[in-house]
Design goal:
Strand order of the largest sheet: 1-2-3-4-5-6-7-10-11-12-13-14-15-16
CATH architecture: Beta Barrel
Order of helices and strands: HEEEEEEEEEEEEEEEE
Shape: globular
Number of helices: 1
Structural class: mainly beta
Length: 273
Amino acid sequence: MIKFVIFLFIYHAAITCFSQSAKQSLIPSYLKTGVYSNNQTDVFSFTGNQAALAKIKSFTAGVFSERKYMLNELNLFSASFALPTQSGNFGLQLHHFGNSIYSETQAGIAYGRKLSDYIDIGIQFNYYKMKISGYGNATAINFEAGAIFHFTDQLHGGIHVYNPTSSKINKNEAERIPAVYSVGLGYDASDNVLVSASIEKTENEDLNVIASIQYKFADRFLARGGVASATSVFFFGVGFSLQSFRLDATASVHPQLGVTPGLMLIYSKSSEE
C-alpha cells in the first residue's frame, strides 16, 4: 500500500509539470467494440461514439467492473443507461476508477438520433472529478460528440471527438484533460459477425489502433476479442444471454503488468414487456 501511495504522488507531481495530462481513458476498449454495427450495438457502445445511441430500440441498462492488473487499488466501475424516445435517444454514463486514496470519476448525459438512413449523430456532456486523499478534489466539465455514416447495410464508419477544448482541471492551467480524436470502421460480415477497427489520437501521445472481432453463435452466446496497439493490450470476452439479460466474462492482458479480469451485466427490455 505504501508503494502504491508513493507511486500516486510521483504520478501526480509528474503530470503537473507539463502542459497536458498523461491520463489514460477511463473506458476500456472492450466496451467500444459494437460501435460501428447495425446488429451488435449494446448499451455500452455509445461510450465510443454517442451516435451509436440511435441504434438502441428499447430501454437498456448495464454495469461493468474490472480489477486492473489484479490490484484492489485499481478497480474500475462503469454503468450505462439508454432510453429511446420519439425525439431521439438519451443515455447516461458513470465511470469510477480508483479507491479512497486516489480516484477519478466521470458522469455524462448523452443524446443521439438518426438524421437519415445514412447518418446518425450524438453528443454528450461530462462532469469529471479527481480526488486525492489529503489534497482535496479537482473538477472539470467537458463534452464529446460523434457521427456514424452507413455507407451500405454492412459497412459503417464514423468520427468522434472527446474534450476538443482540452478543459483544465479547476483553475490549474498546467493540468488539463487531453483531447482525443478518433475515426472508426465496422463491417457486418453477417448478422452474427462484426469486424471493426478504430484509430485514436490523444494529445501528445502516439496513435492507438484498436482492432476487434465479435461473433454471436448458438443464439445465446457471444465472443469478442481484440488488441489496442498503444498499450500492447489484448482483450477478449465471452457472453451468455438469457431472456432479457446478458452476462459477459472479460479479460485483458498486458505483456508486463499482467491480467485484468472483468464482468459485465446488461439488461434490455424486450418488446413483450
